[in-house]
Design goal:
Helices cover 53% and strands 12% of the residues. The protein has 248 residues and is of the alpha/beta class. 34% of the residues are buried.
C-alpha cells in the first residue's frame, strides 16, 4: 500500500529530566507524518493531518514508573498512551523512539476509532513501531518482524482454527505474561496481512467494525466468509509473500 504524506502533527513535548536531540525530533515528525498518512488512507479521511499529540517523556525510570504504576498498576513497559489524559507517557530508554512511534499510533487510531478492538490497536501500533528510515533517502519502510511471523506461521500450521479462536480472547488476556507475546505477534501478523493484500479489504472491514460489527462478523461480510479469510491468511504465511518475510 502507498500512503499519502500528511502535514506535520502538533507535538507538545513535556521533557522531565531529559533532552531530545534535534535529529530525534526531526525523525519523530517524519515518522508521524507517515503514520498520519497511513491512518488517513485506511479510514478515508484527512483529519489526521492536524491531530495534536501530547507527550510526557522522563529521563529517570523511577519517576516514569510512579506515573505508570498510578495509571496502569504495573511497570512492565516503557511507554503508554492514556486515553483518559489523552497523553503519551514515556521513559527515555535506549530504544525510546520505537516506543514513541508505537504509542503515537495509539493516539492517532483513537482519533479515528473510539474503543477499537485490542488486536487492531496493538497490531497497527506494533507494525508502525518498527518503521525505519532508509539512510540517505528519507524513505520510510516497514521492517517485517520475522520472529512474529514464524510464531504465527507455526501456530496456523498446527491448528487451522487458530484465528477463529484468537478473536475470542478478552482484553484482560493482553496483560497475561504467558499469553501476551502470542497475542501481539498475531495482531501484528493480521495487520501485516491486510496491508499486503488488496487495500479494498481493510477500509470496509474497519468501517463495519466502527458500526458495531465484531471482527469475525466484519471479516465474514467483506471476505464472503470467515473461512475464506482464514484460507487467504494461511496461504499468505505458508506459501505467499508472508512466508518470504519469515525466512532467515
Amino acid at each position: 500500500m502507498t500512503f499519502q504524506t500528511a502535514s506535520a502533527q502538533i507535538f507538545h513535548i513535556n521533557k522531565v529530566n531529559c533532552n531530545l536531540s534535534a535529529a530525534d525530533i526531526a525523525l519523530l515528525n517524519r515518522i508521524a507524518r507517515f503514520e498520519a498518512g497511513f491512518y488517513n488512507d485506511i479510514f478515508g479521511t484527512q483529519k489526521n493531518d492536524s491531530v495534536t499529540v501530547d507527550i510526557n517523556i522522563y529521563g529517570k525510570q523511577k519517576e516514569y514508573n510512579v506515573v505508570q504504576k498510578d495509571a496502569m498498576n504495573t511497570t512492565f513497559i516503557d511507554g503508554f498512551y492514556s486515553p483518559r489524559d489523552d497523553r503519551i507517557y514515556l521513559y527515555k530508554s535506549d530504544v525510546y523512539m520505537k516506543t514513541l512511534f508505537h504509542e503515537t499510533s495509539h493516539k492517532i487510531l483513537g482519533n479515528n476509532f473510539r474503543n477499537p478492538p485490542q488486536w487492531l490497536n496493538e497490531g497497527i501500533a506494533t507494525l508502525l513501531g518498527y518503521l525505519e528510515e532508509t539512510p540517505g533517502t528519507n524513505k520510510i519502510v516497514y521492517i517485517p518482524q520475522r520472529v512474529y511471523i514464524r510464531q504465527v506461521r507455526d501456530s496456523i500450521k498446527a491448528n487451522r482454527k487458530y484465528l477463529e479462536n484468537y478473536f475470542r480472547y478478552k482484553t484482560t488476556d493482553w496483560y497475561d505474561e504467558v499469553k501476551r507475546p502470542m497475542l501481539y505477534a498475531t495482531a501484528y501478523c493480521i495487520v501485516y496481512f491486510f496491508i499486503n493484500i488488496d487495500r479494498d479489504y481493510l477500509e470496509p472491514t474497519l468501517n463495519l467494525m466502527k458500526q458495531g460489527y465484531s471482527t469475525p462478523m466484519a471479516i465474514q461480510k467483506i471476505f464472503g466468509g470467515f473461512d475464506k479469510f482464514n484460507q487467504r491468511f494461511y496461504d499468505f504465511y505458508t506459501a505467499g509473500a508472508g512466508s518470504v518475510s519469515s525466512t532467515n
